[in-house]
Design goal:
The chain is 45% helix and 19% strand. The chain is of the alpha+beta class. The protein folds into two domains: 1-54; 61-189, Holliday junction resolvase RusA (60s Ribosomal Protein L30, Chain: A). α3 (81-99) packs across α5 (133-139). It starts with a helix and ends with a strand.
C-alpha cells in the first residue's frame, strides 16, 4: 500500500471507531435511563408495600461457586451433543459437591437466580446469557413427558423449572484476573 492508501484506511478506521463510540455512548445513556426508571418503580412499589401490613416470610437462599466461568453461547452451540451431555453431568456433580448437605429437599417453586461469571475477558450479554443454559438445565427438576421421555434428565432439583414463570434470571459478566476465574451462583426463593 502506498502512503495515500494508508492515510485513507486510517481515516476510515477512525470514522468507524467514532461511530462505534457514539453508538456505545447512546446505549449507555439508554441503560442509565432505564435503570433510573427501574429505581423509581421499585421505590413506588416499596411505598405501596409499606401501606400494607407485612407478614414474616422466611426465604431460602442457596449460594455456591463453580471453579470455572460458564462457557459462552457460541461454545455451547458448536459443541457436539454428547460433549454437552458430559458437561451437564460434570456440572451436576460439581454443584452437588459444592452444596453438600445444604441441598434442599424440595425445589424452589419460584426463585431469583443470579449468576456472576468472572473471567479475564468481557463477553457480550447475549453470549453470557446464552452460556448459562446448561447450568440452568442442570439446576431444574427432571420431569417425565407424556411420551415417556425425560425432560431435563440431568437436573438435580434446585428449582422447579427454568421458564420465566418459575425464575427471574440475572447474569452479570465481570472481569477478573485469569487465576480468579469462576462462576458464582445465588438462588433466592421468591415467596408470595
Amino acid at each position: 500500500m502506498d502512503a495515500t492508501a494508508l492515510l485513507n484506511e486510517n481515516a476510515r478506521l477512525r470514522a468507524e471507531n467514532a461511530r462505534f463510540l457514539d453508538h456505545e455512548l447512546a446505549h449507555r445513556k439508554r441503560i442509565a435511563a432505564l435503570e433510573r426508571e427501574l429505581a423509581e418503580a421499585r421505590a413506588q412499589l416499596r411505598a405501596g408495600d409499606r401501606a400494607r401490613p407485612r407478614r414474616a416470610v422466611r426465604m431460602r437462599t442457596i449460594a455456591f461457586t463453580l471453579p470455572e466461568p460458564t462457557p459462552l453461547m457460541n461454545t455451547l452451540m458448536r459443541s457436539h451433543f454428547r460433549k454437552r451431555a458430559k458437561l451437564k453431568r460434570s456440572l451436576a456433580a460439581q454443584i452437588i459437591a459444592a452444596l453438600g448437605p445444604d441441598r434442599p429437599a424440595e425445589p424452589f417453586e419460584r426463585a431469583h437466580v443470579t449468576i456472576r461469571r468472572f473471567s479475564c475477558g468481557m463477553p457480550d450479554y447475549d453470549g453470557a446469557y446464552g452460556g448459562v443454559k446448561d447450568v440452568l438445565d442442570v439446576m431444574t427438576t427432571p420431569a417425565t413427558r407424556e411420551d415417556g421421555t425425560t425432560r431435563n434428565k440431568f437436573g438435580i432439583g434446585l428449582i422447579r423449572d427454568d421458564s420465566p414463570k418459575h425464575i427471574r434470571l440475572t447474569v452479570e459478566p465481570l472481569k477478573c484476573k485469569r487465576a480468579e476465574q469462576r462462576t458464582e451462583i445465588e438462588i433466592v426463593e421468591v415467596v408470595g
